[in-house]
Hints:
By secondary structure, the protein is an alpha+beta fold. The chain has helices at about 10-45, 60-65, 65-70, 70-75, 110-115, 150-155, 160-165, 220-225, 230-235, 235-265; strands spanning about 80, 90-100, 120-130, 135-145, 185-195, 200-210, 220. The longest helix has about 35 residues, at about 10-45. It is globular and about 50 Å long.
Amino acid sequence: MHPTIPTYLAPTPQRERKAGRTVAVVACAVLGVGLIGGALAGTWLAANEPGAPAEPVGYAEAEELWHNAPVDTLFPRTLAGPGAGPGGSARTWTRIVVAPDAPCSPAVLARGLLATLRPLGCERVLRATYTDATASGVITVGLVFTRAEPAAQRTLGPGLTTRLGQDVPPALSGPGTVAARFGAPQRASWWLNAPADLPVVVTAVSGFADGRPVARPQSAAGAMAPGRTDATAQSGLGHEAKGITLRFEKLLRTTATAAAKENAR
């Protein structure tokens, strides 16, 4: 008589089959993870190849600031400019006029800049006019938002003012303010800047608050050149235009970075 096989031993062959299936499933899973990991690694390597730089932090958020950020954030009521004046003197600018956002057109952009930005996707233009602490000068600041890819933006900035020549930005007047007589004939000095890490071009054009016309506007670089004795140079309007442009670039970068951190939470 053969001994009776205990019933708890009978399922052993089934466990072996399940174990075999489990090994196969695990192997497939490992293979799948390996393939996915390889694909992700390939994507990461492609994104980090020379010529394919990563998108700067806040770049995508900056594209939407023109309608997402409050006006007092984009155009502060007052803006400090330590070291922005001639000889490193301090400047403070006060906002006196704000225009509604506008489509990219010759009414709000110089023609050369408009032609440069249209192929990149010129999105919207925001403008405001400021005056200095003495109310003797006025400055129109423009924030031009684009859909430029990061690579295109990086090539846009260097030498933009020089490349565009006498492409002076339009002035924004303000009835009932010290900028009431600030128009095309009153533009004295200007500057443009396209930061490499933001899809934005910042423009500024300055003039005298008393409405005097200027025969030949000068870029900020020209107005700031040593030895200049003309009224535009002596008044520091070149320093004003360049100084306020750089402050707005920094302000936009700070705002966009803060928005990116908020979105990442």
